[in-house]
Amino acid sequence: MAYIFLLEDDPIIGKAVQLQMELEGHKVVWFQCISDAEKSESLPQQVDLFLLDVNLPDGSGFEFCEWLRGNDVNSPVIFLTARSDEDSVVNGFESGANDYMRKPFSPRELIMRIKNQLTEKKASLEILRFGGLSLIINQQILKNGDQMIPLNRRELEILSAFFEHPEVIISRDQLINRLSSGEEIFDRTVDSHISHIRSKLLKNGIANVRINSVYGQGYRMEKASA
Length: 226
Hints:
The protein is built from eight helices and 13 strands. The chain is an alpha/beta fold. It has two domains: 122 residues, Response regulator (Rossmann fold, 3-Layer(aba) Sandwich); 97 residues, Winged helix-like DNA-binding domain superfamily/Winged helix DNA-binding domain (Arc Repressor Mutant, subunit A), CATH 1.10.10. A five-stranded parallel beta sheet has the order 2-1-3-6-7, with helices on both faces. Strands 8-9-10-11 form a four-stranded antiparallel beta sheet, with helices on one face. Strand 1, helix 1 and strand 2 form a beta-alpha-beta unit. The longest helix is centred in the middle third of the chain and has 18 residues. The radius of gyration is 19 Å and the shape is elongated. 25% of the residues are buried.
């Protein structure tokens, strides 16, 4: 399942895309203007993919895409627009888009393009970075400068969730879903793993990043205040 952010002012197209994506098992949040999208708590880091129209009531999808990239949002962006001239296509890619689809479009083609972008995103996440730390997925290592900190599988899975969604509260249930692989996982198991991760950070002198508890909600990885 992917978390898809849809910015489309046409109610017919917006509803059709939302229903189609939900049938594919994705979660979709849909906005019809830029001002509402920018105020949304769904921005920026927890979105897996953006679908953007270009001509919007209060601005341009190109400008919104530039705003995303300027705020270090690296999730793939696909434009869905009736503007099919060459200059518009070029502007779309120059603003930071990963793909560009002309309206009207085939739902099957859109599904395939989304699948391709999500596959490429997953492949690009072999190294995740936050607060001067690097999480090297395929080597199961947390890197701090030249310092290499080995991780067990559970620690890697938990840290991956935090690195993919930094500064965002992640609930215990979300972490349990991340860890579950045919076995039963409990809240105390998650708490125990996070305690071990905190100990490793402390033992290795890492003070610039912390995993903080958020009462009644879960955990959040943050840069430590100076």
